[in-house]
Design a protein that fits this description.
Elements: H1 3-23, H2 26-48, H3 54-77, H4 88-97, H5 104-109, H6 111-126, H7 128-131, E1 132-133, E2 136-137, H8 140-167, E3 170-172, E4 176-180, H9 181-200, H10 208-236, H11 251-271
Amino acid sequence: MTNTVKRSIFGVLFIGMMMAGLLLNRYTFGALMLFVMIGMIVEFLKMTVGTKFLLCRVLAIITGITMFVTTFLVASYGFPGKYIAITLLPMSVLMTASLYSHDRGDFRDFSHVLASLIYIAMPLALSNLVVFRGGEYSGQLMFGFFIIIWASDVGAYIFGITLGQKYGKKLFPQISPKKSWIGFWGGIFSSILAALILSITNFLPFIIVHCLVLGAIMGVAGVYGDLFESMWKRSSNVKDSGGIIPGHGGLLDRFDSSLFAIPVGVLYLILLNLV
């Protein structure tokens, strides 16, 4: 099986898993997001701290789960928002556990454990604000977000591989040598086009102007999310964050753009009272 065929097969399976998880009901959504979050935290910590801080790594996962579940309960079942403060309990235990590191070098590395919560757990917890409105669940908007992000990734790849490598200037050569400005603008064009189609088909419940803005800002944010993960991988001297998806790498490799793009999209909708 060639790498292209492998990528295609597992890419289709990945999209099918996302569709099922997001479009069926609130429980499949919760299970999907928790699986993705735990997988990404594990990959990120393996990449940055290796086998150190076993207790802290476990506590980071527990803190992330608590953050997501409490936000889920507030958004889905109308629990008082104060229950999100429960997250502070495992967080406090996590920071206390860090005091038992063997030396100062280890303690400096502990910052990566906290980074996993800000970088990964927090954006996924915010996804609850997209799928729940008045306690009613609909994963259509979130799936629309992912379509915009995937369109940007595909557009950037196609424009970059066909034109960018030959004619385009490099975007961030010190971080990702293959990315070009032509690929960047091709990705933005593709994300805006995807948002336009989603608006015309009424898949996104907003007027066309808001859909186009979402396409543009999420496309830009997704690029920086990709670059941010590339910087982590480069500093850790790894090619892929993991190998859970054959031909595609790890979960963090597949969701790196989303970790920046989704919060930006959510913030835009909140500021304009659209959710």
